[in-house]
C-alpha cells in the first residue's frame, strides 16, 4: 500500500460531553464554533453511541473493537494480554503514533507503542488549547513524512467544571491560574438543563459551569485542527471526533440511559466523505472505528470484532447492518459494581439493572457537585423530584422507554400491559446478544428474566 493510500488519522475525544451539547447537535447557539465547522465539513451522526459510559472501558473498547468483558477492561483494569490493539496494527503499517492527554486511561500504556506522549500535566491539566496546538504541531513535524495516528484527548468538560467550588478545592490557585479560561462562559439564567434533569437553581448553576468547560473543550479542538491545517495535511487526514460518554450528571454518565452513551460523533475526510452530511438513521457504535480503520488500510477482516466497518456508509451511503444498539455498564470510577445492560433501536430503549432489588443503593461520581444536592434538597417539598431521586438510587430491575415520545427516559413502561410485547421482544434481543458475546451475566439474566412465564409464552 502506498503512502497516499494510508490516510493520517486524527481521533479527538472529549471527556464527559453530552451528545446534545454542541450547537450542531442542538446545544446552545454558538457554544461550539470549532465543532460546528468540523461538522459542516464532514458527516454528523445523531444516533452514535459509545459502548460503556465511563472513561477507561469506553476508550479501551475503541482501541480494541471489543466490548469490555471481551477485552478485559470492564472497569479501570488494563486490556488483557493477547487482545490486539489498534496501535499495534498501525505500527505494522509504519504509522507514527501519538497521544495527548488521558494517557493512563487506556492501559497498559507500554503496550500501545506511542512514539509521542504528552501527559495531562504538560497540557495545562488537559485544558490548555495553546499547549494542545503546540503539541499537535510538534508531533506532526516529527512524523517526517510517515502516515500518523494522533489521539488528542481533551480533559474538558470532565469535573471539576470551570468556575466551580470543586475546581477551587481540587487545584491550588497557582495551578488554576495556569489554565486558560474558556473563550466564553455562561449565565445560569440562560442555561436550561437537558430534560432528564429537573430545572432547579443548583442544577442550572452547575450546568452553566459545565457549558463553560464544553466551550474550553471546543477551544482545544480548534487549536488541534488549526495545527493540522498549518501542517498542510488536512486533505490527507481522516478526523474523528466523539465524547467518551455522557455528562457527569445524574441519569447520564456511569449508567445505561440514552444520554449515558449517546455521543456527538463527527467524521471528516476530504474527498471521501461528503461535506455537510447528517445521518439521523444509522446506529453507529464506537466499536466500529477499529474495523473501519483497518478496512481503509486493506488489512484482513477480523470476524471476531464486535463492531462493523463504516466505509460503505461513509463513502457510498450504504445501509449499516445494525437495527439494535447494545451498551453495557460494569463499574464506576470508585470501583463500585452496578451491572447494567441496554438494548435500543430507533424507537425504544430497554435497560436491565442486575443490581436493582438486591438492597443496594446506587452511588457514583455523577452525584458529586451541585445538581444531586439540589435534587436532594428539592425532594423535601417537590414530590416529582423526590420520586425521580428515589428511583435513581434504587432503580427497577427492568426499564423500558418509548424514546420517540419520551427521549429523556422519564416514564418507565416496563410494567405497562400495553407494552408487554415490546418488553418481551427486547428481553429476547438482549438475552441473545449476551449469550452470543459470552457476557458473564448471561446466566443471571436468563434466570431472573428469560425464565419468566410471560417470556416463555411470548416465544411459544
Core attributes:
alpha/beta, Alkaline_phosphatase_core_sf, Sulfatase_N, 14 strands, eight-stranded mixed beta sheet, hydrolase, 460 residues, Alkaline Phosphatase, subunit A, Sulfatase, Arylsulfatase, C-terminal domain, disordered C terminus, 2 domains
Structure characterization notes:
By secondary structure, the chain is an alpha/beta fold. The protein folds into two domains: 3-321, Alkaline Phosphatase, subunit A (3-Layer(aba) Sandwich); 326-459, Arylsulfatase, C-terminal domain (2-Layer Sandwich), CATH 3.30.1120.10. It contains 16 helices and 14 strands. The strands form three sheets. Strands 5-4-6-1-7-8-2-9 form an eight-stranded mixed beta sheet, sandwiched between helices. The termini are far apart. Mean pLDDT is 96; it is low at 456-460.
Amino acid at each position: 500500500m502506498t503512502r497516499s493510500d494510508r490516510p493520517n488519522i486524527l481521533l479527538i475525544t472529549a471527556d464527559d460531553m453530552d451528545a446534545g451539547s454542541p450547537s450542531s447537535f442542538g446545544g446552545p447557539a454558538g457554544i461550539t464554533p470549532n465543532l460546528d465547522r468540523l461538522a459542516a465539513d464532514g458527516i454528523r451522526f445523531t444516533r452514535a453511541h459509545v459502548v460503556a459510559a465511563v472513561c477507561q472501558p469506553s476508550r479501551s473498547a475503541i482501541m480494541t473493537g471489543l466490548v469490555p468483558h471481551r477485552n478485559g477492561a470492564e472497569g479501570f483494569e488494563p486490556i488483557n494480554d493477547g487482545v490486539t490493539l489498534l496501535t499495534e496494527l498501525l505500527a505494522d503499517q509504519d504509522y507514527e503514533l501519538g497521544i495527548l492527554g488521558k494517557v493512563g486511561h487506556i492501559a497498559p500504556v507500554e503496550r500501545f507503542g506511542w512514539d509521542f506522549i504528552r501527559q495531562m500535566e504538560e497540557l495545562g491539566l488537559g485544558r490548555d488549547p495553546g499547549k494542545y496546538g503546540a503539541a499537535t504541531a510538534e508531533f506532526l513535524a516529527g512524523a517526517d513524512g510517515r502516515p500518523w495516528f494522533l489521539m488528542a484527548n481533551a480533559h474538558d468538560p470532565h469535573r471539576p467544571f470551570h468556575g466551580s467550588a470543586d475546581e477551587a478545592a481540587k487545584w491550588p490557585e497557582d495551578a488554576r491560574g495556569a489554565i486558560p479560561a474558556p473563550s466564553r462562559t455562561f449565565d445560569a439564567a440562560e442555561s436550561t438543563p437537558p430534560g432528564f434533569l429537573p430545572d432547579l437553581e443548583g442544577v442550572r448553576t452547575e450546568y452553566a459551569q459545565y457549558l463553560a468547560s464544553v466551550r474550553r473543550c471546543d477551544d482545544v479542538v480548534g487549536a488541534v485542527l488549526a495545527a493540522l491545517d498549518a501542517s498542510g495535511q488536512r486533505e490527507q487526514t481522516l478526523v474523528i471526533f466523539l465524547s467518551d460518554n455522557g455528562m457527569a450528571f445524574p441519569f447520564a454518565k456511569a449508567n445505561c440511559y440514552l444520554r449515558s452513551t449517546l455521543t456527538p460523533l463527527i467524521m471528516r475526510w476530504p474527498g471521501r466523505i461528503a461535506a455537510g452530511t447528517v445521518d439521523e438513521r444509522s446506529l453507529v457504535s464506537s466499536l466500529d472505528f477499529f474495523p473501519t480503520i483497518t478496512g481503509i488500510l486493506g488489512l484482513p477482516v477480523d470476524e471476531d470484532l464486535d463492531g462493523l466497518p463504516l466505509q460503505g456508509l461513509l463513502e457510498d451511503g450504504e445501509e449499516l447492518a445494525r437495527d439494535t444498539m447494545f451498551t453495557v455498564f460494569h463499574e464506576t470510577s470508585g470501583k463500585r459494581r452496578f451491572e447494567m445492560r441496554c438494548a435500543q433501536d430507533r424507537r425504544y430503549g430497554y435497560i436491565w439493572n442486575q443490581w436493582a432489588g438486591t438492597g443496594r443503593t446506587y452511588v457514583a461520581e455523577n452525584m458529586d457537585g451541585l445538581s444531586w444536592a439540589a435534587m436532594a434538597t428539592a425532594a423535601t417539598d417537590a414530590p416529582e423530584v423526590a420520586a425521580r431521586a428515589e428511583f435513581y438510587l434504587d432503580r427497577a430491575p427492568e426499564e423500558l422507554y418509548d424514546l420517540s415520545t419520551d427521549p429523556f427516559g422519564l416514564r418507565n413502561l416496563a410494567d405497562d400491559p400495553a407494552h408487554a410485547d415490546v418488553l418481551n421482544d427486547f428481553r429476547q434481543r438482549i438475552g441473545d446478544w449476551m449469550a452470543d458475546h459470552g457476557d458473564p451475566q448471561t446466566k443471571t439474566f436468563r434466570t431472573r428474566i428469560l425464565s419468566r412465564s410471560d417470556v416463555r409464552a411470548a416465544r411459544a
